[in-house]
């Protein structure tokens, strides 16, 4: 006998609310991790562009560690190991303020920052040397030259890979399920456990992930075109 599809059992009001909640948590996790990752990536890329060898070495170690350790292991490390190194007051604060979400966001952000920093470093290397000289001619120091002249141009050049890393970050949020973050994949598993309609519920979740991914890609393409027009 063939498989009988039954979406009515997984699209009840209760389960739709669970899915909406999962989407909301996924988007919040994506946004928070992206902001943290972007800020760290800019700092790492600028430090690696300096001639200060200790800073260059430390950034290189950070990038290699986060690029070569599975993200799941990083998330588990942040959740189970890192709190042990914190003062008791900080641990208590994390417990009271959704430690699973916060630590998953930090872990995903750190990993993404390693990849974003490499994209930004490539952008920095593509900026002509004359731009650095222009900064010096205006009397800018190194930090001012990077902030006002070089980094903005590097960001424009880095938009395509940054969009790809942003999409990857969004998809990586599903790993947060491993430590109990109630994002979309977690809620999907909960509905599956309640209904035993594995195919239907994961098909719905797949559709939601596809729609959200297409939206991110669409927004990224708009940003890329806008920056491209700005450079003409």
TrEMBL record:
Indicate yes or no for the key word Membrane: yes
Q: Which residues cross the membrane?
A: 25-47, 54-81, 101-120, 140-159, 201-223
Q: Which InterPro entries match?
A: AA_ABC_transptr_permease_3TM, ArtM/GltK/GlnP/TcyL/YhdX-like, MetI-like, MetI-like_sf
Is this entry keyworded Transmembrane? yes
What processes in GO biological process is this protein linked to? amino acid transport
Q: Which residues form the ABC transmembrane type-1 domain?
A: 23-220
Which UniProt key words apply to this protein?
Cell membrane, Membrane, Transmembrane, Transmembrane helix, Transport
Q: List GO terms (cellular component aspect).
A: ATP-binding cassette (ABC) transporter complex
Highest taxon of the lineage: Bacteria
Q: Name one GO molecular function term.
A: transmembrane transporter activity
Membrane topology, record value: Multi-pass membrane protein
Subcellular location field: Cell inner membrane; Cell membrane
**PANTHER family in the cross-refs:** ABC TRANSPORTER PERMEASE, MEMBRANE COMPONENT OF AMINO ACID ABC TRANSPORTER
Its family remark reads: Belongs to the binding-protein-dependent transport system permease family. HisMQ subfamily.
Entry-linked NCBIfam families: HEQRo_perm_3TM
Name of this protein: Polar amino acid transport system permease protein
Provenance organism: Aquamicrobium aerolatum DSM 21857
């Amino acid at each position: 006998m063939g498989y009988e599809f039954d979406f009515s059992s997984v699209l009840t009001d209760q389960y739709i609310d669970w899915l909406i909640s999962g989407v909301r948590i996924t988007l919040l996790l994506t946004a928070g991790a992206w902001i943290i990752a972007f800020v760290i990536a800019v700092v790492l890329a600028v430090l690696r562009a300096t001639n200060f060898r200790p800073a260059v070495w430390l950034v290189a170690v950070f990038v290699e560690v986060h690029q070569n350790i599975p993200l799941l292991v990083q998330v588990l490390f942040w959740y189970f190991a890192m709190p042990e190194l914190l003062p008791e007051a900080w641990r208590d604060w994390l417990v009271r303020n959704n430690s699973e979400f916060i630590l998953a966001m930090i872990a995903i952000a750190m990993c993404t920052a390693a990849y974003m920093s490499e994209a930004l470093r490539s952008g920095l290397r593509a900026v002509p040397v004359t731009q650095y000289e222009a900064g010096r001619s205006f009397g800018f120091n190194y930090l001012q030259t990077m902030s006002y002249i070089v980094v903005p141009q590097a960001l424009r050049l880095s938009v395509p890979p940054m969009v790809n890393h942003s999409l990857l970050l969004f998809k990586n949020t599903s790993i947060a399920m491993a430590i109990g973050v109630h994002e979309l994949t977690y809620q999907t598993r909960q509905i599956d456990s309640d209904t035993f309609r594995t195919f239907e519920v994961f098909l719905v979740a797949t559709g939601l992930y596809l729609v959200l991914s297409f939206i991110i890609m669409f927004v990224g393409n708009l940003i890329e075109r806008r920056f491209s027009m700005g450079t003409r």
